[in-house]
Amino acid sequence: MLARRFTLVVVVALVVLIGSASAWQMPFRQYPGIEHEDEPLPPDYTNKAEWVFARLMYPAIPGYGFRGNPDWKHGNANWTIDYPVSDRHLSAEIRRLTRIDARSVEQPIDLDDDDVFNYPFLYAVEVGYWNLTDDQIAKFREYLLRGGFFMCDDFHGTQEWEHFTAVMKRVFPHRAIVNIPNDDQIFHVIFDLDDKFQVPGLQYIYSHSTYEKDGYDPHWRGIYDDHGRLMVAICHDMDLGDSWEHADNPVYPVQYTQLGMRIGVNYVTYAMTH
Q1: pLDDT per residue as tens, the chain (274 positions)
Q2: Domain ranges, residue 94
Q3: 236 bridge partner residues
């Protein structure tokens, strides 16, 4: 009887915690994207859930690149690449392949407010162009040290890597970026991902090249906290976002979507359990 009461208390506590997080989350909002505008909303988009795909909004390097939009808070900026189709396709796979209660629509997250602390998983693309302010850097660091998980993707080559690492050095001046070993739990939490390969963007259909710029080889790197938890998962020289976005595109090779989805499912599950 005592064990049953204890179990009931734990279940009630978890429900209260999930409900409290949902109650404090900002209302759903959608912005115009570089590739997609006015995407139709699924019928259950207002339903609350325990997990939401949180996409990082950020300012880009002023005038750098062809997507450097200074009005980044209103969409049509670097952070909206693949958005929102990519986010929704991965969310659907989380629903299908795990027992995580996933919302059908994403949530753009602005580090200039505190809403980020309501989301255990945060994702960003094109981080070879991001340009976080000092206040955003401090908020980002706090989010990660308090248990948040950040996945970044879709940046390529030496130049973008150098800019990305310069920003991460401001976040964690004394924490090293390391290769994630093959036996790390993140590669085995749902799927065993020992045999990974470079996942290209849609450009592969036209170029027949899996790499972009001088990013010839894919790299799975990360930053760990003091307890060995992976806080930052860095997918460099690959485009998992395109593999999610084009999951229903018959011209995009299925083997890339299969691996991309499995990586995404593992990373989300890791974020929810570590």
Answers
A1: 434 333 333 333 333 334 445 556 789 999 999 999 889 999 999 999 999 999 999 999 987 644 556 789 999 999 999 999 999 999 999 999 999 999 999 999 999 999 999 999 999 999 999 999 999 999 999 999 999 999 999 999 999 999 999 999 999 999 999 999 999 999 999 999 999 999 999 999 999 999 999 999 999 999 999 999 999 999 999 999 999 999 999 999 999 999 999 999 999 999 999 9
A2: 2-31+46-273
A3: 219
Residue in the structure block whose two tokens are 């609350």: 48
CATH number where 93 lies: 3.40.50.12140
Residue 122: CB atoms within 10 Å: 23
Q: Reduced to 3 states, what is the DSSP secondary structure of residue 60?
A: strand
In a domain, 40, yes or no: no
DSSP symbols for 184-239? SGGGTSSS---S------TTHHHH--S--TT--S-EEEEEE-TTS-EEEEEEESB-
Non-local (6+) Cβ contacts of 190 within 8 A are 97, 98, 262, 265, 266, 269
Query: Contact, 242 vs 264, CB < 8 A?
Result: no
Question: Which residues have a Cβ under 8 Å from the Cβ of 207 and sit 6 or more positions away?
Answer: none
* Beta-sheet pairing, 149-153 with 178-179: unpaired
Among 142, 172, 146, smallest CA distance to 234 is for 172
93 domain residue, yes or no:
yes
Distance of CA 271 to the CA centre of its chain: 10
